[in-house]
Write a structure and sequence with these properties.
Mean pLDDT: 96
Strand content: 5-15%
CATH architecture of the largest domain: 3-Layer(aba) Sandwich
Helix content: 25-40%
Number of helices: 11
Structural class: alpha/beta
Largest sheet: 7 strands, mixed
CATH topology of the largest domain: Aspartate Aminotransferase, domain 2
CATH class of the largest domain: Alpha Beta
Number of domains: 2
Distance between the termini: 27 Å
CATH superfamily of the largest domain: Type I PLP-dependent aspartate aminotransferase-like (Major domain)
Shape: globular
Radius of gyration: 21 Å
Low-confidence stretches: none
Strand order of the largest sheet: 2-8-7-6-5-3-4
Length: 389
């Protein structure tokens, strides 16, 4: 059994009391789907909007909020601020990657058959429009491994695109091994991090990630309509965004509105075309700052321990767990089968235990549970207790 830490004893109760009012009414275990906003995010967004009402008085401060949020997000993933910008959704980020990378007809992209559609359809559209072949590998183990990729690549493989954590099984990819293989073989490494970032530590440098996209409303615990987009700085000059605007170019200012000089920014902001959801940027920045202060390694240890408890409880009760991976592939997502999944979901919902009902490729239903750091061990055990009643 893992030792109880200061984080467990002091931080978790304070977080529940001060930041997560949802705990007063629900056992919320559905962070892989949608997260109730923590109080710091709500306060940051409200403060932004109040200042926005007063216009010129706070104009400079409101602009600085974007840069503060960028710095916090960069710190969270171990990137440089100029490598980070903002996107509305994960699929937007993957689409930007697909259409910006210098791919030609006959090149191929490797994904697996467990991916959420946000990491599939952008590549299929590229296949339809540009003749870039999409190779969907079977992943019976739950997700792609470096060994599978190494066995599948050929001389025209240009991209490997993976979810850091698979949305159904909870399989956690070995990003470091995949990134190392891709870098050694001159293959672009693209990561959909929406089911990892916020719950698990992500390090774009150590994991040699070229492009990362993650929207905010899941484990990152930010508002909808905003997310983070990372591009490795050495790669930025190679990429030409499919969509550009005034904010994408060098020297944009009132004096240059009519200059029309298309010189793209040398930073990730070449992908930032307009003022996307600025209140959302404030909320996302507040959560990133909170995570940085709490320590991503502490959050990861906590959520993995909660997932471990749930797996043990489910197995003891006789429920088949599709998320029972070896430790290095565990995440904050645990999915399991039930003799009557629809009835199990109904019982949990009636007991105010919030989870998701999800389906595999054969349309077999599963219950998906996804805790975060502020959940308690008793809340985790409540899942099986409700199912037994």
């Amino acid at each position: 059994m893992a030792q109880v830490s200061t984080f467990d004893v002091e931080v978790v109760p304070r977080a529940r009391a001060q930041w997560f009012p949802v705990t007063r009414e629900y056992i919320y275990l559905n962070h892989a789907a949608y997260t109730p906003l923590p109080t710091p995010a709500v306060e940051a967004m409200a403060d932004f909007l109040r200042k926005h009402q007063l216009g010129p008085k706070y104009e400079a401060e409101l602009l600085e909020i974007k840069e503060q949020s960028r710095r916090e997000l960069a710190r969270l993933i171990n990137a440089a601020p100029e490598e980070v910008t903002f996107i509305p959704t994960t699929s937007t980020g993957i689409s930007l990657a697909a259409w910006s990378l210098p791919l030609r007809r006959g090149d191929n992209v490797i994904i697996c058959d467990q991916e959420y559609p946000a990491n599939v359809y952008p590549w299929l559209m590229l296949q339809k429009k540009r003749g870039v072949r999409v190779r969907i590998l079977p992943a019976p183990g739950g997700g792609l491994t470096a060994e599978q990729v190494a066995a599948a690549v050929d001389r025209r493989t240009r991209v490997v695109s993976v979810s850091a954590v698979q949305f159904l099984s909870g399989f956690r990819a070995d990003l470091a091994a995949l990134g190392r293989f891709c870098r050694e073989n001159n293959i672009y490494f693209v990561v959909d991090a929406i089911q990892a970032l916020g719950a698990l530590k992500v390090d774009v440098q150590a994991e040699q990630i070229d492009i990362l996209a993650a929207a905010a409303p899941k484990f990152l615990m930010g508002p909808p309509g905003i997310g983070v987009f990372y591009v490795r700085k050495e790669l930025i000059p190679e990429l030409e965004p499919p969509v550009v605007g005034a904010n994408s170019v060098v020297g944009f200012s009132p004096e240059t509105f009519l200059t029309y000089e298309l010189t793209l920014l040398p930073t990730a902001d070449r992908f930032y075309t307009a003022q996307v959801n600025r209140p959302g940027i404030a909320g996302l920045g507040a959560v990133a700052r909170l995570f940085n202060e709490l320590g991503p390694e502490n959050i990861e240890r906590r959520v993995l321990r909660l997932a471990e408890i749930l797996v043990e409880e489910l197995k003891t009760a006789g429920y088949p767990v599709i998320s029972d991976f070896e430790a290095r592939h565990r995440s904050a997502i645990v999915s399991f089968a039930s003799p009557d999944p629809l009835e199990a979901y109904r019982k949990l919902t009636a007991a105010r235990v919030v989870v998701s009902l999800r389906y595999d490729r054969a349309r077999q239903p599963y219950i998906r549970v996804s805790p975060h750091f502020y959940n308690t061990e008793d809340e985790i055990r409540r899942v099986v207790e409700v199912l037994k009643d």
